[in-house]
Protein: Rhodanese domain-containing protein
Organism: Cladophialophora psammophila CBS 110553
Amino acid sequence: MISVEQPKNIVIVGGVAGGMSCATRLRRLDEKANIIVLERGKYVSYANCGIPYALGNVIKDEAKLHVQTSEKIASWFNIDVRTEVELVAIDRPNKVIHVKCVGNKNGKLHCDIENISYDKLVLALGADAFIPPMKGIDSEHVFTLQTIPDLEQIQSYIATHGCRNAAVIGGGFIGLEAAENLRLLGLNVTILEYLPHIFPPVDHDMAVPLQKEMERNGMRLLLNARITEITPTGSNKPSQILLNGTDPVEADLIIVSVGVRARTAIVEDAGIQIGKSGVIVNDTMQTSDPDIYAVGDMVETPHLVSGHPVRIALAGPANRQGRLAADNICGLSANYRGNVGTAVCKVFDLTVGVVGLSVEALRSMGRGDKTKYLTIHPSHHVGYYPGAEPMVLKVAFEADSGRLLGAQIVGKQGIDKRTDVLAMAIRAGMSVEDLEHVELGYAPPYGAAKDPVNMAGFVGGNILRGLMQPVYAEDLVKEVCFESGDGTQERRLPKKYQVVDVRTPEEFCKGHLIGAVNVPLDTLRRSLHLMDRSKKILAYCQVGYRGYLAYRILKQNGFEAVNLNGGFKAVCVGGYDSLID
């Protein structure tokens, strides 16, 4: 008698990025398996990353957000997709889940509990928008922007109430995208951010250009915002957001975007191991129960720079994790290789890219003393070809080995390209010196023979080899002191520095560091006899290159010197106004 293996029962809870990626991969690997996908919402396999752009009518047809439909998935992949079904509990000993319907069937809401058995269970429950505890946060004009129903509710509210003033609480990814798109609708928009700068993945000096871009587009920013209450709307009285130490903000519409929290309560109740921010999984995406996998926004996976498990709420990792879980369920050996935290975000005409860790994050982990960084201001392609746009590129690396730790880029063009190159470099464990040797595509419309990535390698290599000692604007700001005289106070840098500006007189007159003297580079060698050899010379130019040349001249003539990282432009762009005379 021939034994016929019964098809596996595989149940996937969650039908968006990670869950649907897992389901379709499973079918491609196993035609006989019984695959069920359960989704709490109305829709499966939709592009939630595009939702803010649908809000601003950049994406004019909401249907384009629906990558697949339940009907198409059923016909193409023979997968049983059930929407508006919510997970209630997991019975691990009996390998059964309890679910209930949360939608209307024939005009009636059925809440009966149904039991579904599984051989393998994949959890892709995602994360819920975090709602901070404050009075009035549950008002009818306060929304989150995470799902298509959220989008539809906001669009309906704006149309019905004729909203003119909007507020976005939170200045992260979704907050900035929501704010920009509300502004595109013609609303007056205020962003309220709890931290000292918007877009927390980057450092303060890299956030300043983003803040200026938002203000240039008519938006109001309130940083270090401490909200105490949201007052209700009324026929003759607009809602107000009340704050400590700041005037109230009027808002007809409020979007809360202060992060998300993994949906782990049911998983934890089932006795599955939970970490600090999400479900703990191994490199095959298995939980502490070998028959239960978890993927996407609800899991912790290793960060390759910090070495610690983190939760990455991005569609790319979720899709890869879902596919990988399917491979392992079907007997293929596949291991998840961790994250480097690569992301890009559009802010009106600017793009910000980030990978790895910021300098602020490295310091918070106690690694500041072991970290160096550089800032450069290259163009996205050669300057002689029309349309060259400048960018700011900041790269952090280990002080001893040069291993890349993170990169942040802001500019109008070519930002995603360099972010992706640096993401590959960090994943490969490369050093900043290795960037010197990266061979990239070059033609005048696209780049330069010395690409910004190569230039970062040149500067970082010089720092590592002791060929250039940088001084950072953020450190100089801390050293600014005041001298009193004739009833006035004058800002100055410590007397240990001779501050030498090696730009042209025309550049110098447009603005310079406090206490600087102008010695143009082409006159520096014949001016050395005028320098005080008992003091350290702080040399700088506009973006750093001429300052570096001056540094090399000075060092080889016996002077103690430093070069201002990123030049005078880094001071201006980074918001270090107290250094400017």
Notes: Residues 211 and 548 are 30 Å apart (CA to CA). Residues 315-329 form the longest helix (15 residues).
